[in-house]
Amino acid sequence: MKGTMLPQKQGLYDPTFERGACGTGFVARVKGAASRSVVKQGLSESSWRPGK
Known about the structure:
Layout: H1 36-45
Protein backbone atom coordinates (compact mmCIF):
# COMPACT_ATOMS: atom_id res chain seq x y z
CA MET A 1 0.00 0.00 0.00
CA LYS A 2 2.18 2.78 -1.28
CA GLY A 3 1.69 6.25 0.10
CA THR A 4 -0.26 5.03 3.11
CA MET A 5 1.14 5.35 6.61
CA LEU A 6 0.46 2.17 8.55
CA PRO A 7 0.70 1.73 12.32
CA GLN A 8 3.69 -0.08 13.82
CA LYS A 9 3.64 -3.86 14.27
CA GLN A 10 2.15 -4.64 17.68
CA GLY A 11 0.42 -7.62 19.28
CA LEU A 12 -1.27 -9.68 16.59
CA TYR A 13 -1.27 -6.82 14.07
CA ASP A 14 1.41 -6.92 11.38
CA PRO A 15 1.24 -4.25 8.65
CA THR A 16 3.09 -6.52 6.17
CA PHE A 17 -0.19 -8.44 5.78
CA GLU A 18 -2.21 -5.38 4.74
CA ARG A 19 -3.86 -5.70 1.32
CA GLY A 20 -6.27 -3.60 -0.70
CA ALA A 21 -9.85 -4.80 -0.89
CA CYS A 22 -12.66 -3.87 -3.21
CA GLY A 23 -15.35 -4.74 -0.68
CA THR A 24 -17.30 -7.53 0.92
CA GLY A 25 -20.67 -9.11 0.42
CA PHE A 26 -22.98 -11.68 1.91
CA VAL A 27 -25.92 -13.91 1.01
CA ALA A 28 -28.84 -14.25 3.44
CA ARG A 29 -32.47 -15.28 3.49
CA VAL A 30 -34.74 -12.41 4.42
CA LYS A 31 -37.03 -14.63 6.52
CA GLY A 32 -34.07 -16.03 8.51
CA ALA A 33 -34.69 -19.74 7.88
CA ALA A 34 -31.54 -21.88 7.61
CA SER A 35 -30.98 -23.32 4.14
CA ARG A 36 -28.24 -25.28 2.39
CA SER A 37 -29.01 -23.31 -0.81
CA VAL A 38 -27.91 -20.10 0.92
CA VAL A 39 -24.52 -21.67 1.71
CA LYS A 40 -24.16 -22.96 -1.88
CA GLN A 41 -25.02 -19.55 -3.32
CA GLY A 42 -22.59 -17.80 -0.98
CA LEU A 43 -19.77 -20.11 -2.03
CA SER A 44 -20.49 -19.66 -5.73
CA GLU A 45 -20.63 -15.87 -5.31
CA SER A 46 -17.19 -15.80 -3.67
CA SER A 47 -15.54 -15.98 -7.11
CA TRP A 48 -17.52 -13.00 -8.45
CA ARG A 49 -15.50 -9.98 -9.53
CA PRO A 50 -16.72 -6.59 -10.74
CA GLY A 51 -16.62 -6.32 -14.50
CA LYS A 52 -17.16 -10.03 -15.15
